[in-house]
Amino acid sequence: MLSSEESAANTLSTPSPALETSDIQAAVLRPRPKPYCGEYVVLRIGNADQGREMLRRILPHVAPADEWWVPSLPGWLGISFTLEGLKALGVPQASLDSFPIEFRQGMAARAAILNDFGANAPANWEYPFGTADAHVALAVYAKSDQDLETVLDLAHKSHKDLDQISVVYRMQFGELPDGRNPFGFKDGLHNPHAEGSGPAEAGTEASVKAGEFVMGYPDERGETANVPIPLELRRNGTFIAMRKFHMDVAAFRRYLRAEASSPEEEELIAAKMVGRWRSGAPLALAPDRDDPALGIDGNRNNDFSYADDMKGMKCPFSAHIRRVNPRDALKNDVVAVNLHHFLRRGTNYGPPLPEGVLEDDGAERGGVFLLIGAHLHRQFEFIQSQWVTDGNFISHGTEQDPLIGNNDGEGIFTIPRVPVRRRLHGLPRFVSVRAGEYCFMPGLRALRWIADLGR
């Protein structure tokens, strides 16, 4: 009998049906605007009737994927809910009980699985994450600060006279210069393409069955989700694993300086750790030196494989982008890579650390990642617990992801080379988890279904 991983290879080759993009929230399928600014807002619901009234008011402003960026609109808004939020809205217990166990337990309760210990432990997360007070998560995106305020005002009006609806968290985010992340690398370069969602954007990878990302469609196993119940609730919905990271840019720079004999070697080691040069050029295509023209070319900077680099001489096995997405590097193994994709929506917060500064200035800076998929356990949780944390799948033992791994000053990073591989020791924790949550992002009809409960 074939294992569940092996059976994915036998998935029907028929294309996925066209997605109902008018019923799917924009954040699921459409990239953020460029340039972008925005704000995350978390609400607590103290009364179900008021919660549903708030939802009815905000619904007209929730952006669908078919018109994710209409020129006449100043920005767009997405909305999702924790299990506690759905409970606070009065969703029937039978529906709550039908959700997958990882969603019902919540991210904080699964810290042992996710390797969230030490500085990353839920006890250290920002309030209200990991508590029963995080109910509704709003994500607001715009192209300018003025447009952002317009959309935030619409969101505020949806609950300003409802005294049992409270704002428990707000965080602004925005694009850094040249579209880089706080570590200085070009951001937002890789995402799979959901079949049936329309033409693939530049830089997307091979198409993956739509059911991997949106419920109501066949996934890579040929299966269609049958929970949560009822169908009206799950159709065109998905799950979000939200992670807020603080990035210790100064520690990253100091480590590179200590391990390298020249500025050029610093850049090479940084590229080896990430799998790309800071410009975005992948090591798989530019193994020896940076190629800025390749880095900015959206049609080329994600069009590569590891088929000719099975010894990791170009891109190390443990490089960040190769660990979180091995592409065809595992094609001869039992792991079906297409079962472990998710859609990634990342934003940055805080000011960049000035160039050349090696000491931390105390500012909060980092990224927030919305990792979207229909299967939390075999998508986000698998990648976090296996590919990010456990090096066995690449025969590297306890070696973790060098960039986002929960290293504690004893981390190791292996760089294959001839005649002798190089091993970097003493990797500190460059990234710390500041917040995390599992959310359910319903389709627009499902939002109306929730809003009309009790009527």
UniProtKB/TrEMBL annotation:
The keyword GTP-binding does not apply. One of its GO terms (molecular function) is metal ion binding. One of its GO terms (cellular component) is cytosol. SUPFAM superfamilies: Dimeric alpha+beta barrel (SSF54909). InterPro entries: Dimeric_a/b-barrel, DyP_N, Dyp_peroxidase. Pfam families: DyP_N (PF21105). Residues 76-170 form the DyP dimeric alpha+beta barrel domain. Keywords: Iron, Metal-binding, Oxidoreductase, Peroxidase. Its cofactor is heme b. The keyword Iron applies. This is Peroxidase.
